[in-house]
Amino acid sequence: MPLQDHLPPLNREFVAHFGEMGSKWGINRTVGQIYALIFISPRALNADEIAEQLEFSRSNVSMGLKELQSWRLVRLRHQPGDRREYFEAPADVWEIFRVLAEERRRREIEPTLSMLRTALLETPSTDAERHAQARMRDMHDLIDRLMTWFDDVQKLAPETALQLMGMGATVTRVLELKDRITGKGAARPARADQQPDAA
């Protein structure tokens, strides 16, 4: 459905993009556009306003808002003297990222970790099962380590977390230097444009 012409071009482009990206993020086009409109709105919106601006049916908007509430990506607000429900996105983008990451972890990662833990408790009876279990252990250990790191980042203040992200290349160089000094870490193959170190 076309977006209403009264949406400014920049807003319209952003909302349309979120609709197109929705399927890649596990939500449908309608929900993506509803969230994008709420996210860029300077004030909380009610379902009628959302339906009018996006030219969606009221029932589609209601279903979309319920899904966004289940993801904890919108907050319900009430206006004095108005019985309608209004919706807004958290003002802090870091808070949105944190909630989205937590929800994806709960819905997608934790069930996988649970399955892997159960599989690792089994006693393999064939070489094929032993090989499969070893691969599962590698996957479990990596995901578990990433989740531990994620928990640690979650405890940081947003400003500190953003500083940590900005240090990515610096941290990588420090770790590579540490590996060279200690002799740990797998040697990287040289790029074609690099000459081997002189002996």
Q: Could you describe the 3D structure shown?
A:
- The protein contains eight helices and three strands.
- The chain folds into two domains: 9-88, Arc Repressor Mutant, subunit A, CATH 1.10.10; 93-168.
- The chain has 199 residues and is mainly alpha-helical.
- Mean pLDDT is 85; it is low at 189-193.
- It is extended, with a radius of gyration of 24 Å.
- The protein has helices spanning 9-22, 29-40, 47-54, 58-70, 93-121, 127-154, 158-166, 168-182, and strands at 45-46, 75-78, 85-88.
- Keywords: DNA-binding, Transcription, Transcription regulation.
- One of its GO terms (molecular function) is DNA binding.
- Pfam families: MarR_2 (PF12802).
The total of beta strands comes to 3
Binned, the helix content reads: 55-70%
Q: Structural class, please?
A: mainly alpha
DSSP helical segment count: 8
Number of domains: 2
Low-confidence stretches: 189-193
InterPro entries: ArsR-like_HTH, HTH-GbsR_regulator, HTH_MarR-typ, MJ1563, WH-like_DNA-bd_sf, WH_DNA-bd_sf
Domain HTH marR-type: 26-85
GO molecular function: DNA binding; DNA-binding transcription factor activity
Pfam family, one: MarR_2
Short account of what is shown:
This protein has helices at 9-22, 29-40, 47-54, 58-70, 93-121, 127-154, 158-166, 168-182, and strands spanning 45-46, 75-78, 85-88.
What labels describe this entry?
single chain, 199 residues, mainly alpha, Arc Repressor Mutant, subunit A, 2 domains, three-stranded antiparallel beta sheet, 64% helix, 5% strand, extended, transcription regulation, WH_DNA-bd_sf, DNA binding, ArsR-like_HTH, MJ1563
